[in-house]
Amino acid sequence: MFEAILLTRSDDGRTHAALTALDESALPDRDVTVDVAYSTLNYKDALAIAGRGAIVRSWPMVPGIDLAGTVAASRSPDWRPGDAVVVTGWGLGENHWGGLARKARVDPGWLLRIPPPFTPRSAMAVATAGVTAALCVMALQRHGVAPGDGEVLVTGAAGGVGSIALALLGSLGYTAVASTGRPQEAAYLHRLGAARIVDRTALALPGKPLQKETWAGVVDTVGSHTLANACAQTRYRGAVAACGLAQGSDLPATVMPFILRGVTLYGINSVLVPNAEREQAWALMARHLAAEKLDAMTVEIGLSEAIGRAPRVLDGQVRGRTVVDVAR
Question: Is the pTM here over 0.90, yes or no?
Answer without folding.
Answer: yes
